[in-house]
Amino acid sequence: MGTVEYIQHHLTNNHIGEGFWTFNLDTIVVSFLLGALIVFVSARLGKQLETGKPGGFQNFVESILDFVSTNVRDAFPGHNPLIAPLALTIFVWVWLMNFMDLIPVDLLPYLFQLVTGDPHAHLKIVPTTDLNTTLAMAFTVFALIIYYNIKIKGVGGFIKMFLFHPFGKFFIPVNVVMTFIEEVSKPLSLALRLFGNMFAGELVFLLIALIGGTLAVGAAALFWAPLQVLLDLGWLIFHLLVITLQAFIFMVLTIVYLGMAHDEGH
Amino acid sequence: MTESSQEPKKTKAGEAPSPAVNFLLLSAGSIFTSMIVAGFLVGYAFDQLFETTPIFLLLCGLLGFIGGMQKVMKLSSRLDPAPKAEKKDD
Amino acid sequence: MSINATLLIQIIAFVLLVWFVNKVLWGPLSKLMEERQKKIADGLSAAEKGKHELELAEQKAKEVLKEAKSQAQNILSQAEKRSSEIVEDAKVKANEEADRIKAAAQAEIEQEVSRAREDLRKEVASLVVTGAEKILQKEVDAAAHNDMLETLVKSI
Q: Domain residues of chain A, as ranges?
């Protein structure tokens, strides 16, 4: 199997359907499983809360919750009970989906191929390297931004924002284009940044894996195999930081954008 | 989250910005970049529509750049009121 | 990596997840944390209040003690004053008594002296009369010479 084919194989989703009506099964299943994990843990914790005895895990969750609510308080001007749970969900879910990236790139696909008996079965286990996932969250957040913009400022205020922001009433066409760019940039910065980072990270993992896969033949393996382990470990540690940061930035951007929508003096 | 927690926020912002604010500035860079990219994208779309390549591409890219700068400045001034107060003293 | 219907499913999943987290995790937990925070704040304020009350009570106790002390001092000084007054009184009385006794004694002495003198005078007069009788070898008419005798007695 050649290098390009190896990479392409790893970056292709296991899908069914044609055209627009294609379903990336692996993305859906993995993200649903991780969502189910959150649901399961939340439900268990909720049940534990009723007994009133705080355990170690509850403290851990509480510290995350505290962290998120501190961020919301610092960046969000108004009061909206939806923002904090939204931010928490984004942070945890995105982090979990990003974390899939740290699982060795060949492990799950290989197991999957063994189980299905199909040596060419596709499996891409990181949902955030699928543009559909990141765009889904970005569009949801974007819809909330538009909703709150209109809800807080009214339809007139929303149109006014398009016409007179940011250069005043003498540059109306420029203002329209500018505000349009600004609105487009919101889902873009949410979805594409996360997708790009995770995709690139996955790609680097694949390239590192290739060192062992294609170059380590015969005696050369003595040199290439340790190098691969070293590089993999280094990138793993670095990537652990990256996935946390990406999840965090996604959360903060959501808060900031929704905060802008709530800002009356926009 | 409630009105009672609003008060410590003000004092916090006045005295020393919490570490979360630094992370917010980090996201400001993200906003800036995406504004430029969005500018180019919108410009590209206009160019495709009116067949005027590369006028709108460059114009909207510039607009995105300016808007991004403006957004970042607004964000940083909103998050950290301390430098503003210093300016007033000058 | 093309955009397809997965997008829709992911949107639905995301919305459901946010809804669930809000309902099951964030709501109860933040409520719990808020309650706990309130409890802690209440406890702290109660402790503060108790401390304040203790301070007040201590102050009060100090004041009471101080007052009692000053009262005791007062009583003590009054008693002292009274006792010294009594002593002074007694002294005065004793002095008076002594003076009185002295005066009585003096008067008695004087009386005694004058009586003795009278007796002596009478004795002397009778002696003188006897002497004169002896000298004159005749009876002196006491009555006749009474005047002379009287002057004689008085001159002794």
A: 3-262
* Whether A253 and B27 lie within 8 Å, measured CB to CB: yes
The closest of A4, A168, A10 to A103, measured between CA atoms, is: A10
Containing domain of residue B49, as a range? 19-77
Report the gap between the CA of A3 and the closest CA in chain B (Å): 31
Q: Which two tokens stand for residue A17?
A: 């359907």
Tens-digit pLDDT profile for residues C113-138: 998 888 888 888 888 878 877 877 76
Whether residue B1 contacts residue B63, with contact meaning beta carbons closer than 8 Å, is answered with: no
Chains that touch B (3 or more CB pairs under 8 A): A
Q: Which one-letter DSSP state was computed for residue A24?
A: E
User: Active-site positions of A?
Assistant: 189, 193, 197
ipTM of the complex: 0.82
Is C6's CB within 8 Å of A27's CB? yes
Query: Taking residues B25-52, what's their average pLDDT?
Result: 86
CA distances from B68 to A47, A186, A263, B30, B64 (A): 46, 11, 18, 10, 6
Residue B24 in any domain: the answer is yes
Tell me which residue in A71, A73, A181 faces B38 most closely, judged by beta carbons: A181
The residue written with tokens 């219907």 in the block is: C5
Interface probe for B, chosen from A71, A74, A134, A188 (most Cβ of B below 10 Å), is A74
Helix/strand/coil (H, E, C) string of A103-129? CCCCHHHHHHHHHHCCCCCCCCCCHHH
H/E segment holding residue A23? strand A23-24
Q: From CA C100, how far away is CA C69, in angstroms rounded?
A: 46
